[in-house]
Amino acid sequence: MSGFDPGAATAGYLSQLSPAFRRAAEIHTETAHWLWGAHLATMLAGCWLIQRLGLMGRLKAWIEAGRERPWFAALACGVVFAGLMIALSMAVEAAGVAMSGQTRSVPYGLWLLGAIVVLPVVYAAARAAPRRWWAWVGGAFAVLALMAVWLPFAAASGPADLPPVPPGAMREGLMALTRKVGLGAGDVYVSPATDVDADVTGLPGRPRVVVTRGMLASRSPAEARASVGHLIGHYAHQDQLTLALLLGALGLGGAFAVHRLFRPVAAAMGAGGVALNDPAGLPAAAAIGIVWLALAMVGYNNGVRLINLRADQYSLDHAREPDGLASALMRSDRADKVDPGAVEELVFYNHPALEGRIARAMRWKAQQR
Fold first, then answer.
1. Tell me: the pLDDT tens digits for 24-69?
2. 284 and 271 in contact (C-beta within 8 Å)?
3. Which residues are within 8 A (CB) of 135 and not within 5 positions of it... i.e. 6 or more apart?
4. How far does the chain reach from its first CA to its final CA, in angstroms?
5. Residue 1 has what pLDDT?
6. Cα-Cα-Cα-Cα dihedral sign, residues 263, 269, 274, 275
């Protein structure tokens, strides 16, 4: 495209964001990153201190003073340990609120639920199969990941009990897109939801395309085509299945890491004689899990980010609406810094940063003739 400057076009889009908005996004992002690091350091320090003091071992010895109660000992140690970790986390969150004024929702209820329901089962598996418990636990997690992430996506297959998009430019554009990519969708349906959203779901060969009433009311046909093109990219590559498998693999890897690293980590924390299936060593096992979770989060976030880059490219190549994509991205909910550094984006971002996504769309536009 003669005379078109993708850099200037990108800057033009970003100029729509006020300096105050961009500064607020930077504060929000940097606070979240600081809290992530503070949580990681505080949780690991807490694990080390609790293990060195032998708190879980003392609690287990008190519970089993008369006879062995492995299930109850695991439950009690898990609940007490979770309570201590929650107290530390709340202290970090309070410091974050004092510094930035921002509050976050931390799933403390899930922490307790895991201590009550999951942890006794994990310790039972470790007692029953000391060498293979990690495969059973990791395999169970992988199945749950498939059920939670991919199964709802696959279940929403084929025609929907919803009205079709009414006649007009929006319908013509979306139907032309589905025909162009050979999607085989019978129609594009309208959900009564008022938020601006869309989805392309279903098993291979049985797609379902749904847009919300909010999207029809507030987005242009070009923006809708670009957004749905992105989602068709996810469907075409079955990205929900990929993410479910990635989560399952990370869960299996985490269980294996605890299995292989428990002895040296427990010894370094002053619990060298404690067995992996003994809840007295729970802080050492948790420390390994916390580090693995931090690394897994980075890996998963990058998987999601790369998947979205590919879906953006799919939209550009098939919907061919670079300005529609850029405009839709500008109008979507944003709280993150729009122009992070390369390392910052690599470590923390689970979607491509806004500036980079718009720049890629404008470069694609410049390459067209």
1. 889 888 888 888 999 999 999 999 999 999 999 999 999 999 899 9
2. yes
3. 252, 255, 256
4. 5
5. 47
6. negative
pTM over 0.85: yes
C-alpha 202/C-alpha 205 separation (Å) is 8
Cβ-proximal residues to 139 (8 Å cutoff; 6+ apart), any chain: 252
Question: What residues in the chain have per-residue pLDDT under 70?
Answer: 1-2, 100, 333-334, 369
Structure tokens given for 367: 């390459």
- Long-range CB pairs of 340-346, under 8 A, 24+ apart, other chains included: 340/29, 344/33, 345/305, 346/298, 346/302
Q: Which amino acid is at 289?
A: G
Q: Round to whole Å and give the CA distance between 119 and 74.
A: 7
Residue 184's pLDDT is 83
* C-alpha torsion angle, residues 166, 171, 172, 177 (rounded to 10): -160
Give me the pLDDT at residue 28, please: 84
d(CA 111, CA 119): 10
Token pair for 236: 């075409």
Q: Where are the domains of the chain?
A: 6-155+239-367
Return the closest-CA partner of residue 346 out of 286, 290, 297: 297
